[in-house]
């Protein structure tokens, strides 16, 4: 996995609440057996008409936001299905951080496995960042994972919380399967005890 | 010893490793796999030269893509991409030696119906699947999580999941349900109360008399939609009904082990005085048959209500409601029961079990569906289908004008050919009414099986209490 350190980029505003994974990547794109190539279909039904033409006023189609690397979104972002195609599509588009007041659990976890940083901020801060994002391409927002801060284009700095283990993995680009396999002894020991206690499992 | 919740007990029995910051490796007893969220995980194993650590605890079944019409063995019934995806599951299951129910096996069906039916899901287990509705298995008092594909690969390789403990929420439904009110109405009413984000970060334990009174099928319906309230998992403490349901299933503990298993299962309840971080109580008597009007499962109202107006809401929800009403083609103030329906879908892991079909048969027996109505019933598994045929339910459906399908996810998410066309309006027993869920620009109203059956007959959303 790619390391996540610092990010300075354009932020796209999507104030809609409850943006679900069906909106992020509609199911017709779940039929691939690859992990890549989903970026062009990110937010497909909001982004294109049925015949494939771009819908002009969708945020990521506006010239200012086509290169966005940050998304500032409404409450409960990523609710719905467990499809990892949602973060794959986000990452493939080039977005590396999503900021909202809240995220659905599975989506939140899936982001970290794909080098995307989901940032939870209180409503007042999201409001400020949303305003900043609305300024368009000239307004670059900075995200510093090490320092755990987001800085607006005006230089206003906001701190955020992030789980220490998840931060470490993201900063180092670590693969958690490798990390877990290093603990194989504990798993073996657990399995031996559990199969005594609950042999029917 | 301090009192523990049911969640605490199952959690404690599965921690294989705990780091200083509380990050745990949770051991997984059952890993269910379907064709959509697994191919990239198996590919990952191959690329890194890893194997499946516990193939005997891993069960695969294709469900999302499979056609549900007769003659589905004919490959031309599937699109090229669906064929590749189902084919990939087929070869991965064989290559890695995991349990597998292929499309032509009578036991094939929706993964969350097959697991319990075959006795793979047992009380006190940890169960995961690359599917958010894994919460269903919580009905057995099993800790069941939906996971993403990277986590599927992690579980395949290590039989563990990296987890931090969630918070505990108690949802109590007291008293009795009124006639016409079902498990589906309970679970939707709870989401109406908490919102789709209200359960985020929690594991919910459902309890109370109205929950205890439910059958295992009904409990699965309740837990199935825990995720729609944002919860990681839903749980119901096992009891005699649970043990009765499990006993004798192909993978349930056999004589000799049964007694030991039962002894442990009987300790799986929340101790008196155990701590919950949040509690919600609803009175069973107050719950009415409900229906969704919008494009989020939290957009729930009693069938007797009217379509709301954006002015009834605040904050970011105002714009979301405007968008939803526009998408759904509804006007504020319109009576729910005046909403005309052209399609009815009965099935899914929420309501594709035998009890659901019995409820439908009771409503439609001797009646005909409204002229022009497209109504389909899709069993949750081949075995549910067989049982419904044996009980004569299938004949009732066919006589009433329903299409009687083969098992699969079908129009719950419309990845196979069963889809809504633009502007079509469906009363569905599934769990999600998101934009485009059942087909591009299709409109979904979530309801209980009995209410879906009623709508099929009358042609509009209908209060089931007017028909019983
Ligand atoms: S029936 Fe629907 S919700 Fe259930 S597993 Fe299938 S697609 Fe998912």
What do these coordinates show?
The complex is a heterodimer of chains A (201) and B (468). Chain A has a single domain (6-197), classed as Aconitase, domain 4 (Alpha-Beta Barrel), CATH 3.20.19. The mean pLDDT of chain A is 94. Helices cover 32% and strands 16% of the residues of chain A. In chain A, strands 4-3-2-1-5-6-7 form a 7-stranded mixed beta sheet. Chain A is an alpha/beta fold and 201 residues long. Chain A has helices at residues 21-24, 44-47, 85-93, 105-112, 123-133, 164-172, 176-181, 184-197, and strands at 6-14, 70-73, 97-100, 117-120, 140-144, 149-151, 157-159. Chain A is built from 8 helices and 7 strands, in the order E-H-H-E-H-E-H-E-H-E-E-E-H-H-H. Chain B is built from 16 helices and 19 strands. The N and C termini of chain B lie far apart (51 Å). A 5-stranded parallel beta sheet of chain B has the order 5-4-3-6-7, sandwiched between helices. A 5-stranded parallel beta sheet of chain B has the order 17-16-15-18-19. In chain B, strands 11-10-9-12 form a 4-stranded parallel beta sheet. In chain B, strand 3, helix 2 and strand 4 (58-60) form a beta-alpha-beta unit. With 468 residues, chain B is of the alpha/beta class. In chain B, 60% of the residues are buried. Chains A and B meet through helix 4, helix 7 and helix 8 of A and strand 1, helix 2, helix 3, helix 5 and helix 10 of B. Residues 63-64, 110, 112, 131, 133, 348-349, 409, 412-413, 430-431 of chain B line the site of iron/sulfur cluster.
């Amino acid at each position: 996995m790619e390391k996540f350190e610092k990010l300075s980029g354009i932020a796209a505003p999507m104030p809609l609440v409850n943006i679900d994974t069906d909106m992020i990547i509609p199911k017709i794109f779940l039929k691939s057996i690859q992990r890549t190539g989903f970026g062009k279909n990110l937010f497909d039904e909001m982004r294109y008409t049925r015949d494939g033409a771009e819908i002009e006023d969708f945020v990521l189609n506006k010239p200012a936001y086509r290169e966005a690397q940050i998304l500032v979104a409404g409450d409960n972002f990523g609710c719905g299905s467990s499809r990892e195609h949602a973060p794959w599509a986000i990452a493939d588009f080039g977005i590396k951080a999503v900021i909202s007041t809240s995220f659905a659990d599975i989506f939140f976890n899936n982001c970290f496995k794909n080098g995307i940083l989901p940032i939870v901020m209180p409503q007042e801060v999201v409001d400020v960042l949303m305003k900043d994002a609305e300024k368009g391409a000239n307004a670059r927002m900075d995200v510093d994972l090490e320092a755990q801060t987001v800085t607006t284009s005006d230089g206003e700095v906001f701190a955020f919380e992030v789980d220490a283990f998840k931060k470490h993995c993201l900063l180092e680009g670590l693969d958690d399967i490798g990390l877990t396999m290093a603990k194989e002894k504990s798993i073996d020991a657990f399995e031996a005890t559990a199969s005594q206690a609950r042999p029917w499992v | 010893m301090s009192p523990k919740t049911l969640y605490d007990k199952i959690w404690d029995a599965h921690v294989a490793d705990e780091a200083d910051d509380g990050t745990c490796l949770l051991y997984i007893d059952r890993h269910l796999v379907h064709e959509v969220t697994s191919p990239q995980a198996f590919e990952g194993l191959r690329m890194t030269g890893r194997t499946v650590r516990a193939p005997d605890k891993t069960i695969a079944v294709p469900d999302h893509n499979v056609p549900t019409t007769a003659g589905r063995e004919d490959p031309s019934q599937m699109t090229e991409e669906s064929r590749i995806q189902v084919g990939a599951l087929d070869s991965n299951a064989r290559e890695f030696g995991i349990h597998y129910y292929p499309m032509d096996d009578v036991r094939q069906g929706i993964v969350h119906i097959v697991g319990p039916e075959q006795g793979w899901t047992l009380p006190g287990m940890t169960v995961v699947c690359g599917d958010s509705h894994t919460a269903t298995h919580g009905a057995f008092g099993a800790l069941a999580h939906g996971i993403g594909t990277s986590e599927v690969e992690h579980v395949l390789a290590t039989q563990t999941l990296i987890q931090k403990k969630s918070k505990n929420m108690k949802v109590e439904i007291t008293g009795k349900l009124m006639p016409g009110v079902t498990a589906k109405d309970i679970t939707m009413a709870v989401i109406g109360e908490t919102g789709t984000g209200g359960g985020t970060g929690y594991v919910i334990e459902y309890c109370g008399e109205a929950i205890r009174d439910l059958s295992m099928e009904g409990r699965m319906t309740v837990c199935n939609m825990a995720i729609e309230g944002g919860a990681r998992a839903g749980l119901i403490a096992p009891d005699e009904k649970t043990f009765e349901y499990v006993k004798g299933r192909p993978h349930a503990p056999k004589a000799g082990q049964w007694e030991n298993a039962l002894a442990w299962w009987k300790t799986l309840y929340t101790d008196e005085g155990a701590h919950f971080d949040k509690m919600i109580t609803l009175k069973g008597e107050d719950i009415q048959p409900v229906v969704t009007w919008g494009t989020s499962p939290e957009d729930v109202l009693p069938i007797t209500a009217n379509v709301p107006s954006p002015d009834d809401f605040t904050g970011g929800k105002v714009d979301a409601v405007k968008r939803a009403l526009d998408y759904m083609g509804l006007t504020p103030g319109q009576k729910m029961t005046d909403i005309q329906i052209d399609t009815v879908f009965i099935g899914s892991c929420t309501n594709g079990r035998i009890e659901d079909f019995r409820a439908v048969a009771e409503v439609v027996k001797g009646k005909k569906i409204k002229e022009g109505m497209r109504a389909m019933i899709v069993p949750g598994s081949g075995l549910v289908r067989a049982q419904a045929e044996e009980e004569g339910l299938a004949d009732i459906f066919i006589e009433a004008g329903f299409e009687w399908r083969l098992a699969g996810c079908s129009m719950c998410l419309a990845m196979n050919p069963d889809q809504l066309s633009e502007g079509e309006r469906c009363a569905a027993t599934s769990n999600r009414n998101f934009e485009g869920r059942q087909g591009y620009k299709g409109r979904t109203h979530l309801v209980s099986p009995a209410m879906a059956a009623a709508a099929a007959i009358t042609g509009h959303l209908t209060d089931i209490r007017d028909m019983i």
